[in-house]
Design brief:
- The chain has about 190 residues and is an alpha+beta fold.
- The protein has one domain (about 10-190): Peptide deformylase (Peptide Deformylase), CATH 3.90.45.
- About 25% of the residues lie in helices and about 35% in strands.
- It is built from 3 helices and 9 strands, in the order αβββββββββαα.
- It has helices at about 25-40, 145-160, 170-190, and strands at about 45-50, 60, 65-70, 80-85, 90-100, 105-110, 115-125, 125-135, 140-145.
- The strands form 3 sheets. The protein has a 5-stranded antiparallel beta sheet with strand order 1-2-5-8-9, sandwiched between helices. A two-stranded antiparallel sheet has the order 3-4. A two-stranded antiparallel sheet has the order 6-7.
- It starts with about 25 loop residues before the first helix and ends with a helix.
Length: about 190
């Protein structure tokens, strides 16, 4: 597995529509493993292949349950602080497609590894049914609700060249992109 650089808006590659995958091969599984490692290191809960510059219809998600784990020992040998960790529960989606979406909507605050440190609310269907190929190329179908429904829709938007900020008003989107550019300039100068 290898860490890959994550593209940051307004990189034009993020606007590409991703191509379907013809079959799940060892090479594609290596890509998914790299995506997962990159996502964990970022840290994030979802990543689309296009976010690392690969225009294929591939997504990884991990919404593993939080667990508390000691961050280290103090001088007395006791746990000094708690840091949130997650039990890994990776999900792999190749050529995902939404085959059903609920009429009821949910408003959820979203962020994105390609739009770092910026968040806003996006309205999406509360439940969706998704058909896809899994890590081994087996056809699957899953009913999603809650955070999984929001996350899969967010990541599937990437496959169409859509960022979560594209769901916002033009003014909000432009303000977020300006903030992002200012922050990137500060990082390169400082």
């Amino acid at each position: 597995m290898a860490l890959r650089p994550i593209l940051v808006a307004p990189d034009p590659r993020l606007k590409q529509v991703s191509e379907p995958v013809s079959e799940v091969t060892d090479e594609l599984r290596r890509l998914m493993d790299d995506m997962l490692e990159t996502m964990y290191a970022a840290p994030g809960i979802g990543l689309a292949a296009i976010q690392i510059g690969v225009a294929k219809r591939v997504i990884v998600i991990d919404l593993g349950k939080p667990k508390d784990e000691p961050d280290g020992d103090d001088e007395e040998g006791e746990a000094s602080s708690k840091k949130e960790k997650r039990d890994p529960d990776p999900m792999y989606f190749v050529n995902p497609e939404i085959v059903w979406a609920s009429d009821d909507l949910v408003l959820c605050e979203e962020g994105c590894l390609s739009v770092p440190d910026l968040y806003d609310e996006v309205e999406r269907p509360a439940r969706v049914k998704v058909r896809y190929l899994d890590y081994h190329g087996k056809r699957q179908e899953i009913d999603c609700e809650g955070m999984l429904a929001v996350c899969i829709q967010h990541e599937m938007d990437h496959l169409e060249g859509v960022l979560f900020i594209d769901h916002l008003s033009r003014l909000k989107r432009e303000m977020m992109l300006k903030k992002l550019q200012k922050s990137r300039k500060r990082e390169t100068v400082g």
